[in-house]
Design brief:
The chain is mainly alpha-helical and 185 residues long. Helices cover 75% and strands 0% of the residues. It is elongated, with a radius of gyration of 19 Å.
Amino acid sequence: MPGPSTEQRADALRNRERILQVAHDALAESGTASLNLIAKRAGVGAGTLYRHFPTREDLILAVYRHDVQRLADSVPGMLATREPLDAFRDWFHTLADYVRLKHGLGEALHTAAVQDAVNQTYAPVTAAVGELLRACAADGSLRNGLDPADVLLLMGFLWRVDPGADGRAQANRIMEHVMDGLRPR
């Protein structure tokens, strides 16, 4: 039978996950969302929020890491429900949305801690890209042997286009040029 410490840990994990989800939504709405607003929306006290995330930067970076890991972990599910090339496109568009959110958080992300967060998420992201590339190579939609890190760098155009409708249209056009270059010869 679980004791109080097991129940407390489970409760703390639920609080942390709830805070991360609420913070993701609040920061997507406004990069200046206050920690008090986030705590209130998450249904926790400010003390609970600060125990998990002592500073605003700690919370923002945790949200970023959490979102990127969740995206990296989504590849098998995407491949189970979509054709590999469609999963590839959708996954990269979602990654671009996350990167745009990170870039929209302003001064909170201009520290050495940011580089650490990016470094921590690089391996899971390139692993996810590799999984997508292998699935696309297996069905013949992209050529075999593409380097995931090279493809990730190439796809960086997605988070440089305008986030509006015109930017999305431009991203889709450029995506087709990229796909043409990655198809089997």
